[in-house]
Amino acid sequence: MLTDVADAGSRAVSLAFPKQRYRLHAMVTSAGYDQRRHDPHRPYDWNGLRRGDAPFVLLQHTLSGRGRLRHGRSMHEVLPGQTMLLSFPHDHRYWLAPGDGWEFFWICLNGSEVLRLWRQLLEAGPLVRLGAAGIDRMAAYCRAVLDGEVTSPARSSQMAYSIAMHLADELLAWGEVRTSSKRPAAIERAVSLVHGAAGAPVDVGRMAEASGYSRYHFSRLFSAVEGVPPARYRLRVRMEEAARRLQTEPDPIKIIAQRCGFADANYFTKLFRRYYGMTPRDFRRSGMFAGSLSTQGVR
């Protein structure tokens, strides 16, 4: 797919649709492919504070050569395989230095949902490395714009959400637990303790004791193996146990809370709402979570 973008040649396409009666909160506004050499008569030099006041974001992936980036007070070389994520207006500058060449494709997006998510993506840094599948997908989106396949605001919005969600899935820490690699025996003992006592007050200290390590070393090892800190893992197990019981048991919420290790029902409700975005009562009554609950690979 990367060669398909390059085969299109240096060009750009903008998607400027008339204002619609239906408000859309994520839109692709333009995309392109370019291969530049430093030219003092036609410099490639963009300042993030000199592109107007309208907010938007940029994804730019380097195929070959290199660019330069100043992001705030940090200086970077933008090398092949790196994807640059920027928002505008912002104090940054990216440019092509004398003697350098830079081959890249780019996509610009705007909309409140894109801007909101981009603020979180930038926590991973203005320069990231996506997996091969992710890069191919971004290149495919770029090529679709260049080929004139985005013909309506709805399609532009659908693509913008797809781009943003793919980046979020790859770059943000959602708290997924790794299941593809075999756990060390020490971590397996701690995990087994948690799952065997979802309703008991098992804290990180007891998990560390079960592992045989000091609390400090255990916490570092657990986070490295499982992808989340032990306290977060423990909370997730308890929340999923609570959700399962709310679906399958008719008992009052206070009783469900106690069975999941929460003596204070109000505190349980507060945590549950923070975790799932709704109260236990609404979770049970809404019916939107009917069916068996996916544990997303916790075990």
TrEMBL record:
Gene3D superfamilies attached to this UniProt entry: Homeodomain-like, Regulatory protein AraC
Keyword field: Activator, DNA-binding, Transcription, Transcription regulation
Pfam families assigned to the protein according to its UniProt record, in alphabetical order: AraC_binding, HTH_18
Cited SMART domains: HTH_ARAC
MF (Gene Ontology): DNA-binding transcription factor activity; sequence-specific DNA binding
Domain of life: Bacteria
Domain HTH araC/xylS-type as annotated: residue spans: 188-286
Protein name in UniProt: AraC family transcriptional regulator
Source organism (scientific name): Lichenicoccus roseus
